[in-house]
Amino acid sequence: MSLKYKIVKDALLKIFDDDNYRNGDQLPTEFELMDKYGFSRYTIRQALEELEKDGIIERIHGRGSFFIGKPDVSRESISGERKEQKGFIGMVNFYSHDYIYPDIMRGIEDTIYANGYSLVLSNCNQDYSKELESVRRLIDQGVKGLIIEPSRNSQITDNHPLLSLLRGAGIPVVTTNWNSKVKNFSMVTIDDVKCGYDAINYLLEKGHRKIGIIYKYDVQAGRDRFDGYIKALNDASIEVNDQYIKHYSDLEEFQYSEQGYKLTSQMLSGSPDPPTAIFYFNDNVALQGYRAIKDCGFRIPEDISVVGFDDYKSSTLLSPPLTTFEHPKYAMGRWAAYILLEELEPSHRPMPKQMIFEPPFIERESVRDLLI
């Protein structure tokens, strides 16, 4: 069971996210927090002390506790004291302009700034040579550590040039969204095999037996969700139908944005035995699938049920609202930064760490129960 102060700390962290706290916003008083959570003042103070140690709040005697977990252009604390600048952290991503990536980046930046570092971002747009060059430049520029989600990462083997470059850099490296078999680096990721398994098992429990999947094959998350798909069908003694399996690559998605529409149309057009449900790699591809399903003359969920992944902001606006998994975007960024900061401590022992999320499943209206 969690310690009492940790329960309060975690609850406050969630409030900071849900209520969009900004730099300088004042927290409730200790007595208000005691009333809210039903714990002693000692427990509340322990939680606040932990948040202050993490650089998320600042407590000022006689004034109260203030949120400082997000970057501030003045680079000053609430008390007016300028924070010590410890250096730069590099972040390399294959795409950062939209979807889940701005929130991951925000989680990283909020955390490292609160601890005296600044973020340097390099976006490689699925360009492998640019990715290598970006890493080289950041290392040459003297970044203290790197956070990276490699492009086409399911194809990275132990002797890959990128891994050789990172191993030789002599700085801490944390990977995100990559459940790598390479053991040299710490990682913050999702249990994608379990998510794939749970998505299909949910559909099986709703009476579906003809279940399709559209996934991205050259990223590890896609491969892992596909493995979960296969395992769930095998455990249910259901034969895998290749006609219900479609995949695309990272590069194809970047160059041609309608992969979800194209592959869904291929799966459904002229099929004498179409699937009754489709599990999509992410909500963006599922959104394209919605259009293809309707253009092929089917209804959601009456004819075809849909499950996505990520809980993208448009998921609730679809008709019907999309059943999906909630990607821990901001929390993933914060944890990647926490681990990197810990590895920068002089007393740190060089032992890679893992933080693996199990995202909550959000049931909405895009799945039909065939057993009713």
TrEMBL record:
Organism of origin: Spirochaeta isovalerica
Chain ranges of the HTH gntR-type domain: 2-70
Keywords: DNA-binding, Repressor, Transcription, Transcription regulation
PANTHER family: HTH-TYPE TRANSCRIPTIONAL REPRESSOR PURR-RELATED, LACI-RELATED TRANSCRIPTIONAL REPRESSOR
Superkingdom of origin organism: Bacteria
Organism ancestry: Bacteria, Pseudomonadati, Spirochaetota, Spirochaetia, Spirochaetales
Protein's name in the database: GntR family transcriptional regulator of arabinose operon
PROSITE patterns: HTH_GNTR
Gene Ontology MF term list: DNA-binding transcription factor activity; transcription cis-regulatory region binding
InterPro entries on file: AraR_ligand_bind_dom (IPR033532), LacI/GalR-like_sensor (IPR046335), Peripla_BP_I (IPR028082), Tscrpt_reg_HTH_GntR (IPR000524), WH-like_DNA-bd_sf (IPR036388), WH_DNA-bd_sf (IPR036390)
